[in-house]
């Protein structure tokens, strides 16, 4: 047995590229064991993964945790948002899951917005204007391109729903993750049957939306898992809502997350409804809201530029004349699904380090452009930005965010915040506590604060000017090669 002060809980982060599991002491927040296993994602026009590999990765990550996982009293799964998982009558995947960063459904997204009242109506109804990342647009794409897959589908799930269901045998989701589908009405917190009817999706195929703090079931007997039979299963949630729990966020505290995608978000007591579509009006996992803006291109895009230049990702050099918009996968904020990377201002004396710094600037500019829209009008604009995600510990990322935001930056020492948030959610179902309060008790946001520096207004104006002037190029749809 472990020497933990309290019961042990497991928090899971099933992300785009891997599944991680943490075994955490519910009393202290100490991580007593961890495990991780990778996923594969298709390349080319789409971004797809076989959901069964998420389960295999979860089993492998839990086995790496050893005996500590067997002692756990509760488990919760945080997962990548928006992914469309289609299951047949036996619970097996009909086809690989369409992931959040698969933007082939851009035409369907535009059509759905037009057909059901326009952006303002969507924002008021669902909290968000659906873009090609949203699950509903992926379902519409599937219905148009693979109608046989739609006919074979007996259940529709999100990635975290899929793993939770394999743990419990029950089809459930939570308000945080379902708020990113496009078929959940944020005002009434119910499935929107008119929207579902419009895209031909039977509500009976969808999971039950459980309440925050509800025990959704227990781990059913499975030889694949090291859990004890009867281990409680918490609702789980989307990755950003889980990270908000993991930080113990209070309303108004801004977060900038640097991962495969980049996100800016905060907790708000006001239900968001941004008619421009820049801010997604997600729910959080507790009962409040999580207004969020997301970019497709963040650490992965900048690392790709460093690789192309054959230099280390930290080998940046200051420069004033070159602008790089690193939209290597299209872009979501700004909404440019067909865009590619764009370089402007190249000269004979431009260095590789300056090109790399320009890639950082372009990525951070996209995120900061949405920050004011994410925050409520009465939010403290001088409060530190919480910098999290894989890039948060990179000096070049930290300095770029400081220089372009003009705000102090705090870098929490805690790692794996999505898994920690899921663990706090699991602890909450054991103790009845608010999981955000659990995380604050664990002091997960503790970390150094980097002082504010003067905001680089010249760089911001230059990037904005290039973005505006290049709009016709960035908005152009690719030509059909046939």
UniProtKB/TrEMBL annotation:
Keyword Amino-acid biosynthesis: no
Alphabetical UniProt keywords: ATP-binding, Carbohydrate metabolism, Kinase, Nucleotide-binding, Transferase, Xylose metabolism
Residues the record lists as binding substrate: 81-82
Annotated site residue numbers, Important for activity: 13
Reaction it catalyzes: D-xylulose + ATP = D-xylulose 5-phosphate + ADP + H(+)
Domain Carbohydrate kinase FGGY N-terminal, residue spans: 9-246
Active-site residues, as the UniProt record annotates them: 239
Annotated Carbohydrate kinase FGGY C-terminal domain residues: 257-427
Keyword Kinase: yes
EC number(s) recorded for this UniProt protein: 2.7.1.17
InterPro entries with a match to the protein in the record: ATPase_NBD, Carb_kinase_FGGY, Carb_kinase_FGGY_CS, FGGY_C, FGGY_Carb_Kinase, FGGY_N, Xylulokinase
Role, per record: Catalyzes the phosphorylation of D-xylulose to D-xylulose 5-phosphate.
Recorded family membership: Belongs to the FGGY kinase family.
Protein name per the record: Xylulose kinase
Source species of the chain: Streptomyces montanus
Taxonomic lineage of the native organism: Bacteria, Bacillati, Actinomycetota, Actinomycetes, Kitasatosporales
Gene name as annotated: xylB
């Amino acid at each position: 047995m472990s020497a933990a002060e309290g019961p042990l809980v497991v928090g899971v982060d099933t992300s785009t590229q891997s599944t991680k599991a943490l075994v955490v002491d519910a009393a202290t927040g100490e991580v007593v064991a961890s495990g991780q296993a990778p996923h594969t994602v298709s390349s080319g026009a789409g971004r797809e993964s076989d959901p069964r590999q998420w389960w295999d990765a979860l089993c492998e990550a839990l086995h790496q945790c050893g005996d500590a996982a067997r002692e756990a009293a509760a488990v919760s799964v945080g997962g990548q948002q928006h992914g469309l998982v289609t299951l047949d009558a036996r619970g097996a995947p009909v086809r690989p899951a369409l992931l959040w960063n698969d933007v082939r459904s851009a035409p369907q997204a535009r059509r759905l917005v037009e057909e059901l009242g326009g952006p303002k109506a969507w924002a008021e109804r669902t909290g968000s204007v659906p873009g090609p990342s949203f699950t509903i647009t992926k379902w519409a794409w599937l219905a148009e391109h693979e109608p046989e897959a739609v006919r074979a589908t007996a259940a529709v799930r999100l990635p975290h729903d899929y793993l939770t269901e394999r743990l419990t045998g029950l089809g459930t989701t939570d308000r945080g993750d379902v708020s990113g589908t496009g078929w959940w009405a944020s005002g009434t917190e119910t499935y929107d049957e008119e929207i579902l009817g419009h895209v031909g999706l039977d509500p009976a195929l969808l999971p039950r939306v459980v309440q925050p703090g509800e025990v959704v079931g227990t781990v059913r007997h499975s030889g694949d898992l090291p859990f004890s039979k009867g281990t409680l299963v918490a609702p789980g949630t989307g990755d950003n809502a889980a990270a908000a729990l993991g930080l113990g966020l209070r309303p108004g505290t801004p977060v900038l997350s640097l991962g495969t995608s980049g996100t800016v978000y905060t907790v708000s007591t006001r239900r968001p409804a941004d008619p421009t579509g820049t801010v997604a009006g997600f729910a959080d996992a507790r009962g409040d809201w999580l207004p969020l803006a997301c970019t497709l291109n963040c650490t992965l895009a900048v690392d790709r530029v460093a690789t192309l230049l054959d230099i280390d990702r930290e080998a940046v050099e200051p420069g004033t004349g070159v602008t790089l918009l690193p939209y290597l996968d299209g872009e979501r904020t700004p909404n440019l699904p067909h865009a590619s990377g764009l370089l402007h201002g190249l000269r004979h004396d431009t260095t590789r380090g300056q090109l790399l710094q320009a890639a950082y600037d372009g990525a951070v500019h996209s995120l900061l452009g949405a920050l004011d829209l994410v925050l409520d009008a009465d939010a403290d604009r001088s409060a530190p930005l919480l910098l999290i995600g894989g890039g948060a510990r990179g000096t070049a990322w930290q300095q770029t965010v400081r220089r372009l935001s003009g705000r102090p930056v705090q870098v929490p020492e805690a790692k794996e915040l999505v898994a920690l948030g899921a663990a706090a959610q699991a602890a909450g179902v054991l103790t009845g506590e608010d999981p955000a309060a659990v995380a604050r008790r664990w002091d997960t946001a503790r970390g150094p604060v980097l002082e504010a520096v003067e905001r680089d207004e010249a760089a911001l104006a230059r990037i904005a000017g290039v973005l505006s002037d290049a709009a016709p190029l960035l908005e152009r749809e690719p030509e059909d090669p046939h």
